[in-house]
Amino acid sequence: MALIKLENVKKVFKQGELKTEVLKGINLEIERGEFVAIMGPSGSGKSTLMYILGCLDRPTSGKYYLDGKDVLEMTDDELSGLRSRYIGFIFQAFYLIPYLNVLDNVLLPTEYLDSSVKRKLFEKISPKEKAVQLLERLGMKDRMDYKPEQLSGGQKQRTAIARALMNSPEIILADEPTGQLDSASGRAVMEIFKELNEEGKTVIVVTHDPNTASYAKRVIEIADGRIKV
Description:
Helix content: 25-40%
Distance between the termini: 22 Å
Shape: globular
Order of helices and strands: EEEHEEHEHHHHEHEHEE
Strand order of the largest sheet: 6-7-8-3-9-10
Strand content: 25-35%
Number of strands: 10
């Protein structure tokens, strides 16, 4: 059974009488443990598709199954729990909380876990211990007390990756993760994704950059709201 399965997914945005069909019948399967790049130009629908994959938006019609669960039948609270448990998000703009230091930014996702899930997830290691381990692995242990404004772009993205990994998600979903980085930092970030995939994580990268997409094992091209075949 595919980890992710989309069947004839469409997305229509309405503004008054105007209707814009952004996704025009997406059929897609992603297996557990894949490294996939979703690639397309601006306006292709790739960001809308990413928001649907990440359970941040709902399609207008069609079906979405995540690990066999019918996402569209879930309540908002159930979707929030699903996101917290299954998906680690990494964005181009980082979205670090400016008044929190690196360690507290990484710990933030644990605050939204259901208490029973949190106890099970951190049965053998405390959230703080795991956060420190992740930051050490990503070369950020000596920056734990720094605020985001004190970090370089590459350091911000490493912090965002650590934050995405805190709840041990099945899926890493990254939107233009190298978009604000210099080429060396971008390569370093993509090598981290490659390592995570080799360890069994399902990695989905949304990008317009061929160099970023080249790290993936499968590239899905989208144009005008349709997957190119």
